[in-house]
């Protein structure tokens, strides 16, 4: 029986990784969407400030697949997570348990790094993949959709200057930021899911390593809104993006342009950092928010769903890999 090996990618793997990315794009009939280069991928994986990580799956000594991932963040949990951007196994190596092994490997990594959850996305028509992920313990978030700003709509939003005050959060803002976060949890009727602490949030905002950033909106000297965000990544573009985890404005200060001002500020940051896209989630029932985001130039992706493994399901998935010869590695 051939042995499956899962290992962290090294700089020597970059050309193989790009070949696998091209194979993934061809499989999805999206070869035209791959605009990245070996040099960019190597810089983002192994440069001075790496954005992403990757693992290589080898079967019988051959590169059989890969996974590319990065840390995301949950403001409510005040914990980092792992987001799987891409997982691909070459067709001739399928039905050998490689996909399951990769998911278990990444779940182990999430547990070892004290992450709150492990997430990825799936197309809603891919019923076999959805069934497989559910068997692995994943929940499919049916009630949310991904919003995306890219290319001209992103630069156009970034070019809209607002007179409203939006600024980066500082450590001194942590109590105010957490109070607003409690307000969002109460407004969303999700106070029971707010399990993080101000101390953990401050550590992850301003400590080392930092996982997330925050901006605040002010009106007449009072902080009345916030947004938290972190870098994400596009494998096909080999470019970083920005992902908005939470955006909230006090109900008493809505319809004053603050939401547009914060999105504009985030779009400016994305353009300044040479990001390929700005993304966030929206609830499917929130017609008002969807209409607002579309006016800002965002596309609402109708067929993508978020998969999530958390709590006991995460530790159970991590345990499925067992104590094999895999080296999880550390950042």
SSE inventory with pairings:
Blueprint: E1 4-8, H1 14-27, H2 38-46, E2 53-59, E3 62-74, E4 79-89, H3 98-112, E5 117-123, H4 127-135, E6 139-141, E7 144-150, H5 151-158, E8 165-168, H6 174-187, H7 198-206, E9 213-219, E10 222-234, E11 239-249, H8 258-272, E12 277-283, H9 287-295, E13 299-301, E14 304-310, H10 311-321
Number of helices: 10
Number of domains: 2
Mean pLDDT: 93
User: Would you identify the CATH architecture of the largest domain?
Assistant: 3-Layer(aba) Sandwich
Enumerate the spans where pLDDT stays under 50 for 5 or more consecutive residues.
323-331
Q: Approximately what portion of the residues adopt beta-strand conformation?
A: 25-35%
Biggest sheet layout? 7 strands, mixed
Based on CA atoms alone, the radius of gyration comes out at 20 Å
CATH superfamily of the largest domain: Gcn5-related N-acetyltransferase (GNAT)
CATH first level of the largest domain: Alpha Beta
Protein name: Histone acetyltransferase HPA2 and related acetyltransferases
Family: Belongs to the acetyltransferase family.
Organism: uncultured Coleofasciculus sp
InterPro entries: Acyl_CoA_acyltransferase, Diverse_Substrate_AcTransf, GNAT_dom
């Amino acid at each position: 029986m051939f042995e499956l090996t899962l290992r962290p990618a090294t700089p020597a793997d970059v050309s193989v990784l790009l070949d696998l990315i091209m194979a993934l794009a061809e499989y999805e009939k999206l070869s035209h969407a791959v605009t990245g280069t070996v040099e960019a991928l190597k810089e983002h994986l192994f440069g001075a400030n790496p954005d992403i990580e990757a693992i290589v799956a080898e079967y019988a000594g051959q590169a059989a697949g890969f996974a590319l991932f990065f840390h995301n963040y949950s403001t409510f949990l005040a914990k980092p997570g792992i987001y799987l951007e891409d997982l691909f196994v070459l067709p001739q190596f399928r039905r050998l348990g490689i996909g399951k092994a990769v998911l278990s490997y990444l779940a182990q990594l999430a547990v070892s790094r004290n992450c709150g959850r492990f997430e990825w996305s799936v197309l809603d028509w891919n019923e076999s993949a959805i069934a497989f992920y559910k068997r692995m313990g994943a929940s499919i978030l049916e009630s949310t959709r991904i919003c995306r700003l890219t290319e001209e709509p992103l630069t156009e939003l970034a070019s809209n200057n607002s007179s409203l005050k939006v600024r980066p959060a500082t450590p001194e803002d942590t109590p105010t930021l957490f109070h607003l976060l409690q307000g969002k949890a109460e407004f969303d009727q999700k106070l029971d899911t707010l399990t993080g602490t101000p101390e953990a949030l401050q550590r992850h905002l301003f400590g080392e390593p930092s996982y997330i950033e925050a901006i605040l909106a002010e009106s007449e000297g009072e902080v009345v809104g916030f947004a938290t965000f972190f870098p994400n990544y596009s494998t096909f573009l080999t470019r970083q993006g920005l992902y908005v985890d939470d955006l909230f404005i006090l109900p008493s200060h809505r319809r004053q342009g603050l939401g547009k001002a914060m999105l504009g500020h985030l779009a400016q940051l994305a353009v300044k950092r040479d990001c390929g896209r700005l993304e966030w989630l929206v609830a499917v029932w929130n017609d008002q928010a969807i209409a607002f985001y579309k006016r800002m130039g965002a596309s609402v992706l109708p067929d993508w769903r978020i998969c999530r493994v958390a709590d006991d399901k995460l530790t159970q998935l991590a345990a499925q890999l067992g104590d094999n010869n895999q080296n999880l590695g550390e950042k």
